[in-house]
């Protein structure tokens, strides 16, 4: 080899080695990239056109279920102090119950009569408050939610119902309904939520969100309230029959819940498609909370969107009341007791 060509030879060799090295690095990177697992595509959530239009209409008109006004509950003491002022008390109990005793100046109305009554019987927006009353506060909570969603923003449900008004009603209502019967049947492990698949389809035939809402409200009022409540005995007899929604804080849920119950955040479920789409449309849904009031509101919203939803009567108070009393301070429970009962006047 010519000595003059030696440097050139080594320069060329070094150049070839550098090219090979760079090419090898690129190849390895490509192999590494190819080895990375490909993320599975999420199954799209199925939401029908009418459902989408109704969701949008409710959101455009204030998104009540995610506002500070939700749930719209009022204490019996406030109601008593407001009597004689610019309020209206509507008693949803039976005509017989009403005739045997009711709040002064209250009017008796059937649930089914309310839409027409609000349209032609009164001028709702001239009143400061319209307060709905029932036996235990759960039917009135359900009804209040529907009326609020219809645009009547001054409607309230009286907490605990007539049980909070005086002892006569408490003995027949809440004080007979509270129980610790199933405290030994609770579980503490979290249950996994199913994947979001879709929401119940609405088939009103209407074209706008407002029209769809009107049709759904009309149907719910026609159906009445005969099947919106479910008892602890029914649920605990076979919890697997139901899809059970727990509307409580995480610490309360983890301390003990109905077997199979799945926790949903009270403030981040209703109106959120991904959350509601995980609730099955082919199974009876049982919603419960501490007192049954919040679950009454949630049940109304779910039924508006076509779910077969029920609210658990008396909530946690109906099956773990003793446990709630023991942990009242630690977990901020609201166990009903004689201290919640007033001695307000009733008239006949």
List keywords for this structure.
348 residues; alpha/beta; Oxidized Rhodanese, domain 1; 2 domains; 5-stranded parallel sheet; 10 strands; 10% strand; globular; disordered N terminus
Entry summary:
The protein has 348 residues and is an alpha/beta fold. It has helices spanning 6-35, 49-60, 76-82, 95-100, 114-121, 138-149, 167-172, 174-177, 209-223, 232-237, 250-255, 273-276, 293-304, 321-326, 328-331, and strands at 73-74, 87-91, 107-108, 129-133, 155-158, 229-230, 243-246, 262-263, 285-288, 309-312.
Would you kindly provide a written description of the structure presented here, covering whatever features stand out?
With about 350 residues, the protein is of the alpha/beta class. It folds into two domains: about 50-180, Oxidized Rhodanese, domain 1; about 185-330, Oxidized Rhodanese, domain 1, CATH 3.40.250. The protein has helices spanning about 5-35, 50-60, 75-80, 95-100, 115-120, 140-150, 165-170, 175, 210-225, 230-235, 250-255, 275, 295-305, 320-325, 330; strands spanning about 75, 85-90, 105-110, 130-135, 155-160, 230, 245, 260-265, 285-290, 310. A five-stranded parallel sheet has the order 1-5-4-2-3. It has a five-stranded parallel sheet with strand order 6-10-9-7-8. The longest helix is centred in the N-terminal third of the chain and has 30 residues, at about 5-35. It is globular and about 60 Å long.
